[in-house]
Amino acid sequence: MRTIVVATQNAGKVTEIKKMLEDLDVEVKTMDEAGIDLEIEETGTTFEENAIIKAEALKAHTDAIILADDSGLEIDHFGKEPGVYSARYLGKDTPYTVKNQIILDRLQDVPKEQRTARFVCVMAVAAKDITTITTRGTIEGYIGYEARGTNGFGYDPIFFVEAYNTSTADMCSDLKNAISHRGEALRQMKERLKGILEVSK
To answer: What is the mean pLDDT of the chain?
Structure first.
């Protein structure tokens, strides 16, 4: 069984990834569980660049497969901000409840057709014995008029999906994983991982 180390300190992301990879013959660990204490500086200007930076930064610290993602929210009315700066937007240590309320306040008088947005996720897999690969997933939606739901993290409570008329934080985990940007990118990466695991047997 090979180990996959997820290059994040975000417990919500790790929970989603573990659930989606549970049928693979792998052990998924956080950086803490793998004994890796590393502050990774995200200097890229695209989701792809940052995902690769994070994945490859861990190669010197483990023989495991490293899975990293860079994801964020693009709000069209804000010129696709916060984009790659989603985690640092309005201050890295600012709680998302505060960030979300600021965004809602800024969009207070903006009509629904101008509130279009999307979540983007790029996954990268790296290891000492493979060439780094990436996959990309997106989900289209809009910024709602209030925060709704608790089954999510980050900007999930204000991101609404038209077909379900609710936020991604108000969806059950199975539905969210089935339609989310992270779910789409991870399903693609899961197929690539199957090939990597087959070769490494």
So the answer is: 94
What confidence tens digit (pLDDT) does each residue in 109-148 have?
A: 999 999 999 999 999 999 998 999 999 999 999 999 999 9
Q: Check if the beta carbon of residue 177 is closer than 8 Å to that of residue 159.
A: no
pLDDT tens column, 153-200: 899 999 999 999 999 999 998 898 899 999 999 999 999 999 988 877
| Cα Rg of the chain, angstroms | 17
Instruction: Give the separation between CA 61 and CA 44, rounded to whole angstroms.
Output: 21
Overall residue count recorded for the chain in this entry: 201
**Of 89, 56, 83, residue with least CA distance to 70:** 83
Domain boundaries, position 18: 2-199
Q: Check which CATH number belongs to the domain holding 60 and give it.
A: 3.90.950.10
Residues with a catalytic annotation lie at 70
Question: What region does 67 belong to: left with phi over 0, alpha with psi -120 to 50, or beta?
Answer: beta
Backbone angles phi, psi at 148, to 5 degrees: -145, 135
Neighbours of 139 (CB within 10 A): 19
If one counts the domains in the chain, the total is 1
